[in-house]
Amino acid sequence: MNSLQEKIAQLLHLRERLSRPSESQAAKEELQKVRPEDLAEQVVHIEPEHAAEILQEMEPIQAANVLVEAPTETVRAIVRELPDDVLAAYLDVLPMDDAMDLREELGDDRFESLLNVIPKEDAQEIRRLMAYPEESVGRLMTERFFWVKPEATVKEILADIRIAPDEKYEMVNDLYVLDENEHVIGVTSLRKVLRVPTTTTAAALMKGDVVTVRASEDEESAARLMARYGFYALPVVDDRGKMVGIFTGDDAQAILREAETEDVLAVGAVSGDAEPYMSLSVWQLYKRRFPWLLALFVAETLTGQVMRHYFPSDGAAATAASMMLFLPLILGAGGNSGSQVTTTITRALALGEVVPGDWLRVIRREFATALLVGGSLGLIGFARALFGWNTGMGLSLVVGLALPAIVLWATSVGSLLPIAAKRLKIDPAVMSAPFITTFVDATGLIIYFEIALRILPKS
Amino acid sequence: MNSLQEKIAQLLHLRERLSRPSESQAAKEELQKVRPEDLAEQVVHIEPEHAAEILQEMEPIQAANVLVEAPTETVRAIVRELPDDVLAAYLDVLPMDDAMDLREELGDDRFESLLNVIPKEDAQEIRRLMAYPEESVGRLMTERFFWVKPEATVKEILADIRIAPDEKYEMVNDLYVLDENEHVIGVTSLRKVLRVPTTTTAAALMKGDVVTVRASEDEESAARLMARYGFYALPVVDDRGKMVGIFTGDDAQAILREAETEDVLAVGAVSGDAEPYMSLSVWQLYKRRFPWLLALFVAETLTGQVMRHYFPSDGAAATAASMMLFLPLILGAGGNSGSQVTTTITRALALGEVVPGDWLRVIRREFATALLVGGSLGLIGFARALFGWNTGMGLSLVVGLALPAIVLWATSVGSLLPIAAKRLKIDPAVMSAPFITTFVDATGLIIYFEIALRILPKS
């Protein structure tokens, strides 16, 4: 039995114990020890109302972090089950950039009404961040950074650190030195401050030539900049060069991870944001895959045109020749849908979103999606053959039936082979898109011809 | 003009100025301001002996970091131009895990002889790390972490930080609390230490339940663990639970970035380690791509077998029918080689290893690689057709010529389309593998038929 499934079972058991007065205290204490990142992974697999019950038994900061880490669709379902005062408490304890992130899941209206309940200062900060464009650094930065004047001495800096309010200290390891215009003129670190005489000034300690990013800059390029230099935080400046916040490494890493996932999926012709596989509905899977498949399908009809040009289908082997015309179209649809699935599943396996024990759930989802995708392509293919190319009813029917059959087959192969590879301790990435395409070419052909043999009159 | 090319030109100009006595001092000062990560990117594009000259004008720590950041093949060429005493100085100033990383580029023999020159303590540490298995956390950790006993007071801790030697402080933001067996029982941070009365003990400050990794654990899974919890460092323990080092965020990020790249390439059926595109020779590109193409090619001959089964090629339209047999084989080879290239180039563009201005250099490399790949496949295809399937000489020749032509075409399209997309500010990932495959299906067909029309006798 795999460990994620075990953990989910444990979590559901914990929920039962929470409801029994004699055990609830012990269960609560156990719950407190679970890390938000782990819980976030588990709540995807349980009922939203159960997840909401569990969250309400936790410390607000811990529960809020579960929501920050969990996938969008899961959070959307859970917050529907949570009362406003609980959500307001979550927004209050979260760092502002994380609080703002919950806006998408809460919906604009509910988020706005919650902003009126939380402390005014926090609400104002959130509104300031929201004024920056989507996917810009400004949306993700924190305004709570630690800065000193160049003439400040180590003694003054240490005293400052000691008395400043707690939330000022999201990231105190880097100390920024700002001039009178609030421009960054240098940076130093806490450890350096601790190892020099207390009369040393910040100006004497600091390193100049600081790399900064603009608040309006694209988050992905800022994250790449940070990764490139191996920094853990970058100062963020406004258009006039005034420092307005810091962009921290954890946000940068999350952005890069999502960007990588989107890149991998794009290679396999799946569009859309990086959402964990299991949190997407069959309909959402369909929407991510079908547009690309359709575009490729239409493009592949060109292949048929080219073949018609070289081999006008009349004369002796007419049926065979016109069957051939549809070959690239049908094999292409199978190969492309197989590539999409294998890319998606391989990525989900690499990120640990899917484990081999999930195979039955995966195949059920994929089967449903393949019926939608294959059915749509089949209808279009049938119509195209019958009315577009004036193929006879028989062959048009063969095309219309072969398409869903091959898509179903390619999807099953494309989803199960990576999972089987993972279970056999082979790197699932070996089941690459070209591998699946080639496999489907050979086997899909058999499906196409066998359907034809049963429907077309023997010539 | 793009900025990487400008920077390379500037660097070469700087090198000239370094050699002129009147300007060398100013040039040296300018050089000192360049970040090692930027230089590492630029030295890929200049002659190794020029790069070596420039490095020797730099501070050892700065020069050594350029070598740490630059791609393997580039470093291998540069170190051949550097004398032993310079390299020994580099090994001396680098953190031990980075120093050990240079072993691959220096070669075992030269690395061993350098170990005898550097300070004995450093050499011993490197030998200890080298005893861990390849790709394990032990190889990447640093032994220089800061730890305290549970009964230590804040006053003692601060005094410790003040007097300890500099190299103990690679990562002092996290303070580990170890018991008498050197097991990690808690962790606290420098900022917490600074905000409590000086009589507070480490035991009172620390957070227990610390996430650790084993030194023998696989580096990628440890890096994923760190990313999952958003930590900046993880304590590393040996098999008995004794803390032996820390695994830091910069190493973890580098590992994840490489793993992602390998995943992306694998989706496009390119095997091998994550090496920057421009640092690979044509022969290396061939070696990464050909084995997969060959395997897929052999698999695709199955398609031909299936078609032969359903359509024995004799009778009236014999030529047309036997031409069809090779269709999936030829289109498959084109589609697969196109997928490989487009995946590789798209990834290189995403990482900034290739910029649109490089298009001419890219196409030159891809053309040479395609000649090798296509030529190999063409020979095999020709032999397979002539001797394996007893196709006539004419059609065998068509197959043997169409294969390299289509591979050349697919490779050109697969490399130029993502670059063109990037220049037009479209996301290059849109040029996905299925897109290229479909495009090559339609256009490759024309190449195949046109070659056939010129070689085969008219029927």
Structure commentary:
2 copies of one chain form a homodimer. Chain A is mainly alpha-helical and 459 residues long. The first copy, chain A, folds into 3 domains: 3-131, Alpha Horseshoe (MgtE N-terminal fold), CATH 1.25.60; 147-248, CBS-domain (Roll); 268-455, SLC41 divalent cation transporters, integral membrane domain (Tetracycline Repressor, domain 2), CATH 1.10.357.20. Chain A is 65% helix and 6% strand. The first copy, chain A, is built from 22 helices and 6 strands. In chain A, helix 12 links the parallel strand 1 and strand 2 (174-178). Chain A starts with a helix and ends with a helix. The model of chain A has no long low-confidence stretch (mean pLDDT 85). At the A-B interface, helix 12, helix 13, helix 15, helix 16 and helix 17 of A face helix 12, helix 13, helix 15, helix 16 and helix 17 of B.
What keywords describe this structure?
homodimer, mainly alpha, CBS-domain, three-stranded mixed beta sheet, 22 helices
